[in-house]
Amino acid sequence: QKEVEQNSGPLSVPEGAIASLNCTYSDRGSQSFFWYRQYSGKSPELIMSIYSNGDKEDGRFTAQLNKASQYVSLLIRDSQPSDSATYLCAVTNSGYALNFGKGTSLLVTP
Amino acid sequence: ETGVTQSPTHLIKTRGQQVTLRCSSQSGHNTVSWYQQALGQGPQFIFQYYREEENGRGNFPPRFSGLQFPNYSSELNVNALELDDSALYLCASSSGAGPLGEQYFGPGTRLTVT
User: Fold this and answer.
1) Over 60: is that where the pLDDT of B98 sits?
2) Is the Cβ of B93 closer than 8 Å to some Cβ of chain A?
3) How far is B6 from chain A (nearest CA, A)?
4) Is residue A3 less than 8 Å (CB to CB) from chain B?
5) B66 CB near a chain A CB, below 8 Å?
6) pLDDT (mean) for A73-94
7) Nearest-CA residue of chain A relative to B88?
8) What sign does the dihedral B9-B81-B104-A24 (CA atoms) show?
9) Average pLDDT, chain A
10) Do B99 and A102 touch (CB under 8 A)?
């Protein structure tokens, strides 16, 4: 079974701080990496995708990928209470089946 | 909003019954994937349909089956329901021509089996 591991949290950060979410994966053949945000009782929402080593920035979000270390992370700058949610890391080597971690719960406190 | 719709929103069934869940993909998308999300877990891949053919399947028994129609909408059928089938069922659509694997989820169907 190909694994995607995330710390379940909760990760608590004060408003305005940087939240750092981490994910490791076991399948070296993985090609595509995604971060989804899921609010309680809602469905996952795609917030970032990354395909090559390095950083990718989109607004307050930065995804970082290191294929040699099999590690992908998400940084959220200037965290807001509205960022409080579960963040799911998803990985695929096939282009069809997304393999998800269990998610990290983020709590941003005012 | 992704433009992916699912029905019904909630459903309560009894063990042993059969259920059909429906999904309409986002405009311009020809691929639909289905996932099961149990409470406190990440979504688990059930199968994917591309141009009306099953394109891949996860580790789910044959009582989970699906269809995709010419308009790219899809159905998930589950026979002989078990208590462990209680979960959020998510449909995701994607474009075969788009970035590899990028999938957009609908709001989900919450299935409770009693």
Assistant:
1) no
2) no
3) 11
4) no
5) no
6) 96
7) A43
8) positive
9) 95
10) no
Inter-chain CB proximity B35 and A99 less than 8 Å: no
Distance, in Å, from the CA atom of B4 to the CA atom of B93, rounded to the nearest integer, reads 7
- The reply to whether residue A46 touches residue B102, judged by beta carbons under 8 angstroms, is yes
Helix (H) or strand (E) holding B76: strand B74-78
Per-residue confidence (pLDDT) for residue B99, from 0 to 100:
60
pLDDT at B2 over 90: no
Q: What is the pLDDT of residue B5?
A: 97
Asked if B88's CB is within 8 angstroms of A32's CB, the reply is no
Answer whether B31 touches A (CB < 8 Å): yes
Residue with tokens 């970032």: A48
Query: CA-CA distances (angstroms) from residue A21 to A14, A89, A104, B74, B89?
Result: 15, 9, 7, 34, 26
Q: How many C-beta atoms surround the C-beta of residue A23 within 10 A?
A: 27
Rounded CA separation A35/A14 (Å): 21
Q: Which residues of chain A lie closer than 8 angstroms to B104, CB-CB?
A: 46
Length of chain B: 114
At B74, list the tokens: 């899809």
Task: Give the β-pairing of B74-78 and B19-24.
Answer: antiparallel
Tokens of B14: 């009894």
> In one letter, which amino acid is A4?
V
Mean pLDDT for B94-101 is 71
Supply the pLDDT for residue B97.
58
